[in-house]
Amino acid sequence: MPLSGLDESVAVSLFRILRHFMQKSQPQEIRQQAGYVLFQLSAPNTVHDIIFKYLNEQFSNSAGCDEEPLLLIEHLDLNGKRLANLLEISRTANIKKSQVQFVLAKSVRKAIWNWIENYPQEFATLKELDKTLSGKAKALFDTLQSWQGKKGEFWPLQSLLLMLCPRLLSKLFDRNVKIKPRHEKKKEFLDKLKDQINKKKNTFVTITCFVDMLKAMDYQKRYTRNQNVDFGLRGLFVLVEPEIQGQIFNPTNPLKNLEGKLAKGLMVDWLSHSFFVSNRAKMINLFCEFERGDSLPIFKLVTVECLLHIVSSDQATTLTGAQGFDNLATETRTLFLSEYTTLAGELKFGKSLSSDKDKRFFIGNKKDKEQKEQAESSKDHNLQIVTKSLELYNVEPRFALVTKTENVEEIKNLFVSLSYCASQFSLPDLTDCAAKTLLELHNPKTINLWSTRSDLMPVFWSISATISSTFAEVLIEQRDLKTEQIQKVMNVVEGILLRRLDFLRIFKETNTNLGSSNSLITQTMSKLEVALLVHMCNLRTEICSQTVRCIGLMCEIAELLNTDPSCHLANYTVYKELSTANFYAKGWQAQQTFIRKLFRRMDRPTPGTIEAWDEIYRRWEDYKEIVHVPEEVQTNDLQKPQSKMDVKRKVSHVNNRLKDKKSQEIVQEWLNHTGFLCSLSGVCLAEKPSSRSISEKNVIEKFIDEMLFVYLLSDNLTVRKSSKTLLGSLNPTTYFILFRDLNIEAKRVLAEESRITDPKMFVEQAISLVRFIAEMSNTSEELSGLTDLEQLVLVLTKCVKQQICPSYPTAKLRICELVDALMEKKKWISFRNEYKFRQELIDTIIEWTQEFTAASQTNEQTTVVEPVDKKTGQRTLKKQTQGSGVVQCLKTVSTLLRGLPLQAEDDAKAKAFSKYFNFLSGFLSNPDKNFLSDIVVSGLSYLVSANLRTFHGFEYLTSMGYHEDPDTRQAFLKVLTNMLKQGYNTDALTNENTDKYYKFTQLLLDPDLEVVMALCDVTQITEAEEVSSLLIHLFEANDKTFDLLKRIIDVEISKTESSTTLFRSNSMATKLLTAYSKVVGLPYLKVTFGPYLTQLVADKVSYEVDPDKAAPNDNLLENMKNVQSASQNFVNLLLKSAENCPRALKEICSYLQSSVKQRFPGSEHTVVCGFLFLRFFCPAIVSPEGFGLISATIDKSVRRGLILITKTLQNLANKIHFTKEEYMRGLNAFIDNNMPNIIAIFEQFSTVEGETNSSASIHFTDEQKEEDIGRLHYHIARDLDKMNKVLLSAKSEDAKAKLRLTSE
Predict the structure, then answer these.
(1) How far apart are CA 161 and CA 137, in angstroms?
(2) Contact at 8 Å (CB) between 1262 and 1152?
């Protein structure tokens, strides 16, 4: 309800309540709030009348008025008429006590100033009106003269009352006008004021009077129509101004109030209103003088507050547009930076800026105490100057940014100071003010003030990089930040990013170049990337979500800057998907799981990801001592507060940032940090290649080592279980470290030389971990990491056989389940000798089956673990009898036999076949044969099918058909039926095999290649490598590879806009060319590079040329020569061996040259050499063991050398110099000298003439062909709908018909 419509009774009740809250006994804050409400309440006439009625009653009280009613006066909303009424009742008030008279004088003075400030137009026209109000003012003046108070108590009110009598005041200052006798005392009063300026006892009161007059003159000047109206005071002020200013700003004894404290408010009023009334240039010079270093702290503070007052008024432009403003802004900024430096020093060493505790316990003599108080006052002024300067910059940003001569470094220092102020959480007012100011300075219009240069972008990115670096430092180095503190910093970062984005969008409308400083842009992105990645591990979902939003803004900025955002944000694709995902409402576990899943896909190591990983690792190590506390102790910690110290006694050290956290929260944080380290391990390993040496581990190997041998074997059950899950989320490229370390330790366990205290637990956990990884790996990228598993699985199997496990029967079943998981995905797993591996496992599991069979009679039970549920990610426990163990073993044997041609000499092979056949068929006469029949039949089918033509396998099979047991004869029919379903018909028995995928193969090999091209269009990048390899195998086996590659080259060139990106992305065209070059060129690489690489690895020469990475005894100049020499040797090898290059590879290069030349004339050399080096030569050089070129282990320093050599060769192939990496610039001369050689290599490898060496014929086994075709069929069947859309858009009825046939 509007206040004007208040019922009288309601108004009376409200007024009564407010009077209660405004009593002196109430806290100051409550009285202020009640005063604000009273001001609003007193505006309507009805309420005003009630209040004045109350005041009149109190003032006329025969017993005399007390102080309480007088305190209401200064909070009333008074216009001129009401003020006149107040002056009248004040004059007639029955006030007997001098103290109450003084309170009345103070309250009426405040009421008059309320009227002037709220109704300035009435005050400005007072001389024209000059009726009732002036009369009441004169009468009250005379009353005050009659009161016998202390000398000077009423002077401020009396001087202000004279300001309400402009006509009289003009006469008092006019010597030509005769003053009436009744006004003689008023003239004497003014003359007395001049005389009292230098009188010590009355200085403060006198100066208060003159400051009031000055303020009144300012209001008159601002709001009157006649600018010449000054009450006649101007002449007076010309006379007294030096004296007053000298008293106020006395450097040895600044003005103090009646309580002995510095009169800061009076100083501010004098300076600010003098600026509007006096000469402005003179005042600006005075401001500059007060802000300089030798000035008193109080003068500096007063000046800053004065400037804030001026720019907050409606006359701000009189200062910002005045001559000398640039000097003033520079002095103000210098003052701020100086005071901030002092403040930062105090905060850095943990000193309190206003410590009551220090004062309370301070002991010393009077002089020491005065010095202490003076030091505390100086500190307080220091903080106030910084805070008020921030408020000044927030109101008027030009104070922060305008310089006489542009000084970017000074502006950068200012932003650094602001950023640090925004993170001083022990001073919340300073923090909030700095944050608000930073955002104001980042408004798009304000950013234009950052530089006066025509090219703003370099300055913009230079300052942005500095700010990003500062906030990143705050977020990273201040590890003990609380949640609300992190949120405050993140709010500022997010606000800055939003404003940067707005500015760039506006700027781009008139300027095309947003990124003239690429290195600064990348630096800006990189610094924030580190901080945001670190806090993405935060347990609070709101903070994690905020970091994701900030990363999304960085993605948008990157999109604005370049058509390829990854130029400035290398992992843009992952970050963009992260920022657009909707996972905010799913809880911290779901949030972290999703983030880890995305981070595993990162494939571009950057300084940001590397630094973030290292920082998280350092934090992760802080948890070591706590997370191992047994779970029952942690439970006690949560249930019994007094047991918290018991937990801490369990550990030798507790990090400060963790000491106040609950154990459960610590474990959850540990989970987040561990998941982050696991998911980003691969991309960081790419930057820091591992030597694969146990004795010399890099940090990632150390992390995996700790996870395996510390956390996976922890006494804390939650940590132990979680470690397995988290290790399963390792980036697949680091699996080789995991499996290598597991294999080494398992061998030690087997040899009873283990370094761990509980080898039995290790074996159990190792089996469970490998099984978990195999079951949870689904994509081709994940499965590609499952390498070198044979030895590990076989060693773990031997450990189980030797009963190095607390639960021997269960361990056997877990091995079987692990094998099942591997066999289910064997098509994607890289085995060294798969068939031998499978055969060894079959022999072991047959033994276990016989053990289970012998024990099944006892009906013993064992606990087995069910496979991971793919939806929930959880396992279940189930009790099984020993007979169930037989079933599991038979299932695993059957799985291992599928597609397994037995490996041995003919006699041994026949013996193995007989053993397996008899083992399986023996179960057909088992009492539980009905239960086992299907498993046995499947196993027999697989055994016979894979070895049907090798020896007398069919004779064994037919013997079943004549068995005396009818169930066995029936099983024979089932086996034969299964074989036929698997692709064997009657012709198979006569060694005439018919391909069951014949029609499908013909469709793929069709000359128009429409089905293949559609498959290439829809294949995801994660599966492109596998599909490319399968297609190359298929077409090479049918001598049609060249047709496929020509078609894919033409398509790729036609849809590429620039030659600079041709065949440089991970497209299907690139994958196919790379796969083909490996297939046909591997023998050439072995002959050409193999011997030299073997020698180079054996020599172990140092190649490091980066000063930051070099060892203390490294000779960088000598190392540079080593890189240059090795690079030259590789160039020479290519020149000498060009004639030995397979003809097929040269034909592809020749076709690539002609096609590129037609579309991008002049670029054919760069594209062909780029392809040869980027996709063929350099990968083989940097990772020769992966190509089978050498067998020796590569030393870490040699690996670094190979990387530097390939960088050099790649730049030579691209014909570009090293510019960004300064330490590589010494190789630019090598590039220049070898330009003729690289042209010769291009010519030789692109020319097909004479009897060029033909590539050796490549043989594919029938089983391999069938498996490849089956995998292709799987991919096409899965993507059939997508391929159909592609072919529909092509409007090819023939292709659509073929696709329908494919689906059939």
Answers:
(1) 5
(2) no
pLDDT in tens, 601-640: 887 888 888 889 989 998 888 877 777 665 554 444 433 4
* Most distant pair of Cα atoms in the chain: their distance: 151
| Cα dihedral 1218/1223/1225/1227 (nearest 10) | -100
Residue found by looking up tokens 């004639």 in the block:
1139
Give CA–CA dist 773/430, Å, rounded.
51
Name the amino acid, one letter, at 1291: K
The residue behind tokens 């146990």 is 694
H/E segment holding residue 881: strand 877-881
Q: Which amino acid is at 764?
A: E
Give strand pairing partners of 862. Answer: 880
> What does the alpha-carbon distance between residue 865 and residue 319 come to, in Å, rounded to a whole number?
80
- Mean pLDDT of all residues in the chain? 79
Give me the residues paired with residue 119 across strands.
none
Residue 467 CA to residue 534 CA, distance in Å, equals 18
Rg (CA), the chain: 44
Q: How far apart are CA 1092 and CA 1198, in angstroms?
A: 13
Token pair of 120 as six digits: 């300035």
Mean pLDDT across the stretch 526-535?
90
- Per the model's pLDDT, the better-predicted residue between 343 and 1128 turns out to be 1128
Indicate if the pLDDT at residue 642 is higher than 50.
no
Q: What's the pLDDT band for 128 if we cut at 50, 70, 90? A: low
Q: What is the pLDDT of residue 1265?
A: 74
| CB 76 within 8 Å of CB 82 | yes
Joined tokens for residue 806: 């607390």
The predicted pLDDT at position 13 comes to 86
CA distance 300 to 382: 9
What type of residue is 1149? C
| Token pair 């604000």: residue | 36
In DSSP terms, which residues pair with 1049 in a beta bridge? none
**Structure tokens belonging to residue 228:** 């010449």
Nearest to 767 by CA among 696, 820, 715, 729: 820
Following DSSP, what letter does each residue of 309-367 receive, concatenated?
Answer: HHHHSTTTHHHHTSTTHHHHHHHHHHHHHHHHHHHHHHHHTT--SS-HHHHHT----HH
Query: What pLDDT, in 10s, does the model give residues 486-526?
Result: 999 999 999 999 999 999 888 877 665 665 567 778 888 88
Structure tokens at 707: 């996870």
Return the axis-axis angle of helices 1235-1245 and 1143-1159, rounded to nearest 10°. 110
Positive/negative CA dihedral, 307, 311, 313, 319: positive
Tokens of 1163: 């670029």
Query: By the 8 A CB rule, do 776 and 787 touch?
Result: no
Residue 179 CA to residue 175 CA, distance in Å, equals 9
**Helix (H), strand (E) at residue 864:** strand 861-865
Confidence of residue 436 (pLDDT cuts 50, 70, 90): very high
Q: Are 619 and 536 in contact (CB under 8 A)?
A: no
Distance from C-alpha of 311 to C-alpha of 290, rounded to nearest angstrom: 18
DSSP state of 1254: P
What is the phi/psi pair of residue 253, to 5°? -150, 75
Q: Is 787 helix (H, G, I), strand (E, B) or coil?
A: strand
What is the structure's pLDDT at 517? Answer: 63
**How many residues in the chain?**
1304
Average of per-residue pLDDT across 75-104: 86
How buried is residue 164: exposed, middle or buried, by Cβ count under 10 Å (0-12/13-18/19+)? buried
Q: What is the pLDDT of residue 1057?
A: 67
As a whole number of angstroms, the distance between CA 815 and CA 852 comes to 14
